[in-house]
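Let's sit down with a protein and look at its sequence and fold side by side. Which protein we use is up to you, so please pick one and set it down. Label the sequence line and the structure token line clearly, so we can match residues to local backbone shapes. Go ahead whenever you are ready, and we will take it from there:

***
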Amino acid sequence: MTDETPFAVAVDLEGLRKDLAEAGAEEILGELVETFAADAPRRMEAIEFALQSGSGRQIRSAAHAYKSSAGTMRALELAALLLDLEQAGSAADLDKALALQTPIRDAHERALEFLSDAPGSVEGDA
């Protein structure tokens, strides 16, 4: 990443591990990663469908659902972009929503790639 972005990594896996450890639930990390990795492509498809529909309500709803999931996984850049999309949907600002499509797709792909490559993630637990 460059200095232009405040996000050092696609997913703050260490922060997530710390949060889980503090809750006494560190053992569920692999399950969380697997669930996110399986669900994220469907969430992204829902966003793309909503953007194609041009419906602010559908955009807001799809962005909100994925934002919650991304936030839980500490995919902070993705979650921030999805918040922007959710707000654009609420305002029925289709131009802004469409302008967010590529950055969201890129952050989505970075998060999934990061999780697939991260030690202790799905492949690392095998």
About this structure: The mean pLDDT is 90. The chain has one domain: 13-117. The chain has five helices and no strands.
